[in-house]
Design brief:
Beta-galactosidase, Chain A, domain 5; ten-stranded antiparallel β-sheet
Length: 731
């Protein structure tokens, strides 16, 4: 018994000793790992003869000039170099400093809403470097402005990234952070020294040529990513019965680019973080300097009008900044990828890798936007004006099917009680009784489904009719100046609309789904909320555009299991979309835009099917027709059973051609002619798009289909193929 106790005691002592040794060994091992990781973060930099730091991977070499944060990035496969700083003795001191600095910062003082831009020469910050195997951190302290931030730069297999974490930013009392520029002069060219162009992503896409402009352009390209901010920006007012102010095309993807055609090099800048409060800047030569340059400006505070009276106010900047991480991912391209098609394919691959773009079912279909009803004023009442009943939708689709037009996508708008305008904000989702009842609507949906046709019900969960009563403290969007936001309509019945807050929109979606879940309604189209992004004041707090974007994603995700069509959606909603409506076919026609290109269609083709805007509202029908062929966009028509004359005194008075009896022939023509071409490339990615002449375009698809589009007034011959003037040919 005693021997047994001794054995147990010895065993325990041996086990404890082993554990102590093992623990010490483990601690030593963990310590060594920590040391190795720390060494990886604190590597001794390699320098060249000029004293500049060298960082390299298998594809690129980065050279850092520590005094300016300037970079020279060399493509090791081609030998081409991208520089981030430029020397210019002609411009004033402010612009010279901007061009010689890798980073610039804008500050507001307590006395002015005019920002002061500070570069590394003027601001003379103290810079402390921390080096990594793949890049560096640069901690900047601007003593005069009592401002800190840390720039993080990394070399990647595709190029480089540059960013600033929000936690690294601190500001003092006198000067407040307004905006940050990260390597704005990367790839800049002087006058016409390089052949090529800058890419701006407005509309479907546009180019700004790098040729010498001889000073003819005076203003730069500046446009916010994801459109204007109604919570800050003042809307352009259109007077009733006068031509509406034309809305410029928006930016729905956070990218920009530069291509050097002759040298077959270029880059795509992808704004990965901070995109919701950023804008794309593109300066053609002659605008301020002799250089062509393009970048992103990250705003932390913006200037708005603070109300001091009912109709007046004073400009002021936001007191609370929108602090968030910012980051640009620069991806370099070369060889046959160095053109706008290559940039689009680069972005396509990026979105696929991020899970924001997946292949959806693609089938050529003519979209028929059936307009249900609207209201007009009669004395003190509003009277519903029915335009297309459920029965008429049935009759029109049946007539088309009898004429062998079977690939159709019917979309029903203005079907709600009280019609298109008055229904906005009602929170009720019954069908207007003058159009039919729910039973008839469900019967039509099921009848069409038997013919492999899906009826989409359009719904706007953002707009609110101003004639209704709302809880304005939490349900209606107020700008950050605490004034209710109004969207002008340029119409006589309701001259403006309000916006619902994201929380209210979320509640409305829940109510809609509760009513229609488990019914025949399996296809829904979303309007407005898909591309309106704003900051707002609610319940004593200010919500940012980033907050609104995240809440919009939550709203859209409620439709899980529903086939979802989105109107001109911003990129952060693409993964939720099954169909893309209202693909833009043009740009804003600014004088310095040299060409329109199908950047968005090249990104989307083969993944997400898309339709053009309604044919009815295009002044140049022939050119619009050819653009759809060029962009691979399916056609759309706004259709009514009744004459649009009946809409004369409604908010839909802008509709002047819509009656099915009038449009039937055009619908049949588009169905046959466009269908014969676009069915050949259903679900097929675009391989290349190029201007072979100034007015002649060639689109090549992955399956070998070639489409020539001739926009000129003369026939064009290529080999044994003749493309007639203002026409197209398929090879």
């Amino acid at each position: 018994m005693v021997n047994k106790k001794r054995f147990v005691l010895v065993f325990l002592l041996v086990f404890m000793a082993f554990s102590i040794v093992a623990s010490a060994s483990s601690d030593k091992k963990d310590g060594n790992t920590a040391v190795k990781e720390e060494k990886a973060k604190n590597v001794e930099p390699i320098r060249n003869q000029q004293g500049n730091v060298l960082i390299e991977n298998e594809n690129y070499q980065m050279q850092l000039e520590e005094s300016t944060l300037g970079l020279i990035i060399k493509d090791l496969n081609t030998g081409f170099q991208y520089e981030t700083t430029k020397t210019d003795e002609i411009s004033n001191a402010s612009w010279q400093g901007f061009m010689k600095s890798g980073v610039s910062v804008e500050f507001y003082s307590q006395k002015s809403t005019m920002p002061e831009r500070v570069d590394l020469l003027k601001g003379t910050p103290k810079v402390t470097y921390l080096y990594y195997n793949d890049g560096f951190d640069a901690e900047l302290f601007y003593e005069t402005y009592d401002f800190h931030m840390t720039l993080e730069v990394r070399l990647t297999g595709e190029g480089m990234t540059a960013g600033v974490k929000k936690d690294s930013i601190s500001e003092g009392e006198t000067y407040k952070l307004g905006a940050i520029y990260l390597y704005p002069m990367l790839g800049a060219t002087k006058l016409g020294e390089e052949e090529g162009y800058m890419l701006v992503p407005e509309g479907a896409g546009a180019l700004i040529d790098l040729s010498d402009n001889h000073g003819k352009f005076k203003t730069p390209y500046t446009k916010k990513i994801f459109g204007e901010n109604v919570g800050i920006d003042k809307s352009e007012i259109s007077e009733v019965f006068k031509p509406a102010v034309t809305e410029p095309e928006a930016i729905t993807v956070p990218v920009f680019g530069m291509i050097y055609s002759k040298k077959q090099q270029g880059f795509l800048g992808i704004v990965e973080e901070g995109q919701y409060n950023a804008e794309i800047l593109a300066y053609p030569n002659g605008v301020t300097t002799e250089f062509n340059w393009i970048t992103t400006k990250f705003h932390y505070r913006e200037v708005y009008t603070m109300q001091t009276a009912a109709s007046s106010g004073v400009p002021t900047y936001e007191k609370t900044p929108y602090m968030r991480d910012i980051k640009i991912n620069y991806q370099f391209v070369s060889g046959d990828k160095a053109d706008y098609t290559g940039l689009a394919k680069t972005y396509q691959s990026y979105l696929v890798d991020q899970g924001l773009l997946t292949a959806k079912g693609d089938k050529f279909q003519v979209k028929l936007d059936f307009f249900g009803a609207d209201t007009k004023k009669w004395f003190i009442f509003h009277v519903v004006v029915p335009m297309t009943t459920v029965k008429q939708v049935d009759e029109i689709t049946s007539d088309l099917i009898r004429n062998e037009i079977t690939d159709i996508l019917p979309v029903y708008t203005g079907w709600q009680a009280k019609g298109n305008s008055l229904a906005l904000g009602s929170g009720k989702f019954k069908i207007e009784r003058k159009l039919g009842d729910q039973k008839k609507l469900f019967h039509l949906i099921e009848k069409l489904q038997q013919k492999d046709i899906e009826l989409v019900l359009n719904q706007d969960f953002l707009k609110a009719n101003p004639s209704r009563f709302y809880n304005t403290s939490k349900d209606i969007v107020k700008g950050i100046n605490q004034v209710i936001v109004e969207e002008p309509t340029n119409a006589s019945v309701f001259d403006a609309m309000h916006y619902f807050t994201p929380s209210k929109s979320y509640d409305l979606v829940s109510r809609f789904k509760k009513r229609y879940d488990g019914t025949a309604v399996t296809n829904v189209g979303l309007l407005s909320i898909t591309n309106e992004l704003f900051s707002y004041y609610s319940g004593g707090d200010i919500y940012t555009r980033g907050d609104t974007a995240q809440r919009t994603i939550d709203i859209v995700n409620q439709f899980d299991g529903i086939n979802l069509s989105l109107e001109y959606p911003n990129v952060y909603l693409w993964d939720a979309a099954d169909q893309y409506f209202d693909m833009p076919m043009s740009t804003s026609n600014y004088s310095y835009l040299s060409k329109e290109i199908p950047f968005l269609p090249i990104v989307l083709k083969g993944y997400l099917p898309y339709w053009a805007k309604d044919y009815n509202f295009e002044a140049n029908e022939k050119e619009f027709y050819l653009k759809m062929i060029e962009y691979g966009a399916y056609p759309s028509f706004l259709v009514t059973g009744e004459s649009p004359n009946q809409l004369r005194n409604t908010n839909s008075s802008y509709i002047y051609t819509s009656e099915y009896a009038v449009l039937k022939g055009t619908i049949e023509q588009y169905y046959k002619e466009m269908g014969d071409v676009l069915r050949l490339v259903e679900g097929v990615p675009i391989k290349s798009h190029q201007y072979i002449e100034s007015d002649v375009v060639l689109v090549l698809y992955d399956n070998g289909v070639q489409i020539y589009i001739n926009y000129s007034d003369e026939d064009y011959k290529v080999g044994d193929l003749t493309v007639s003037a203002m026409s197209f040919s398929v090879k």
